[in-house]
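TA notes, week 10

Several of you asked for a full example with nothing omitted. So below is the full record: structure tokens for the whole chain, then the designed sequence directly under it. When grading your own attempts, check the secondary structure regions first.
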């Protein structure tokens, strides 16, 4: 879907990285290593996105860190587009449909960090949760969004580095 609109795979990876979670930030070499691409390809796309105002850069020690510009007028639109691209909207809808008294749904792991690894890990916090439904839901969601999904029911604290998708 989004691949037909954004034809640069590197740019798409960068948008997922920075716009899935506003706290994600990284530097050129780290991105090149993470994506398995040359620093030149990454640099070119970082420059385009920075010049367009979608990313901001800041110097930290002797590295330049990049992150999403949350003040950009299109930030929220791109953030929502990335969430839809990853299927998080359908995932959340399916969880809340018949899961029980859900208080938090938190995206953790690779996707919370903006790494499009193909494995989505979700933690669910609540009371009287329907664990049988969760087992069936995993298979249904995988077919729906074409990504592996791992669910964990947690008791207690949510992962502070996770991305909260739902909070009651």
């Amino acid at each position: 879907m989004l691949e037909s609109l954004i034809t640069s795979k590197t740019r798409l990876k960068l948008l997922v990285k920075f716009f899935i979670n506003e706290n994600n930030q990284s530097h050129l070499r780290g991105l090149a290593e993470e994506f398995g691409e040359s620093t030149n390809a990454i640099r070119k796309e970082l420059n385009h996105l920075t010049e367009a105002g979608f990313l901001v850069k800041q110097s930290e020690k002797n590295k330049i860190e990049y992150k999403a510009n949350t003040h950009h007028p299109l930030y929220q639109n791109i953030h929502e587009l990335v969430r839809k691209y990853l299927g998080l909207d359908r995932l959340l809808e399916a969880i809340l449909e018949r899961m029980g008294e859900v208080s938090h749904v938190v995206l953790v792991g690779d996707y919370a960090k903006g790494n499009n690894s193909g494995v989505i890990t979700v933690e669910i916090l609540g009371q009287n949760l329907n664990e049988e439904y969760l087992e069936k839901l995993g298979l249904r969601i995988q077919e729906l969004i074409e990504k592996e999904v791992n669910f964990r029911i947690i008791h207690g604290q949510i992962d502070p580095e996770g991305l909260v998708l739902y909070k009651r």
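The first helix runs from residue 2 to 5. Use that as a sanity check on your answer.
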